[in-house]
């Protein structure tokens, strides 16, 4: 796993792992990118998507790719790989859990918010 602080230089993309509606909305907002190796910065997850594929995309966006500044992941998808998400400690790319249309945001499950509360002693 990446060190807690890593170099932000060259990190200029958002990546997303999410359901079809979330990814489509973000692509329409302009975050989509396909690099020279034909690697995409987004992954659409549905009920048939294997957990191993989600973990592989998470690994790619957080450790392998050095052009990702922020990784957005639907919270209900992050729940499927919660141990991996909870172990992630690096500053870059920043990891943000977001709600989806059918799954509201639950602050008690957010790994970043849990760390902040732990630091504050809550």
Automatic annotation (TrEMBL):
Predominant location: membrane
Lineage, uppermost ranks: Eukaryota, Fungi, Dikarya, Basidiomycota, Agaricomycotina
Name of the protein this chain belongs to: V-type proton ATPase subunit F
Topological category with respect to the lipid bilayer: Peripheral membrane protein
Sequence similarity: Belongs to the V-ATPase F subunit family.
Subunit comment: V-ATPase is a heteromultimeric enzyme made up of two complexes: the ATP-hydrolytic V1 complex and the proton translocation V0 complex. V-ATPase is a heteromultimeric enzyme composed of a peripheral catalytic V1 complex (components A to H) attached to an integral membrane V0 proton pore complex (components: a, c, c', c'', d, e, f and VOA1).
SUPFAM superfamilies in the cross-refs: AtpF-like (SSF159468)
Keyword Protease: no
Function: Subunit of the V1 complex of vacuolar(H+)-ATPase (V-ATPase), a multisubunit enzyme composed of a peripheral complex (V1) that hydrolyzes ATP and a membrane integral complex (V0) that translocates protons. V-ATPase is responsible for acidifying and maintaining the pH of intracellular compartments.
Superkingdom, taxonomy of origin: Eukaryota
Region of interest (Disordered), ranges: 100-122
Keyword Membrane among UniProt keywords: yes
Keywords for the protein's UniProt record, in alphabetical order: Hydrogen ion transport, Ion transport, Membrane, Transport, Vacuole
GO CC list: fungal-type vacuole membrane; proton-transporting V-type ATPase, V1 domain
Molecular function via GO: proton-transporting ATPase activity, rotational mechanism
Species of origin: Cutaneotrichosporon cavernicola
Compartments (UniProt record): Vacuole membrane
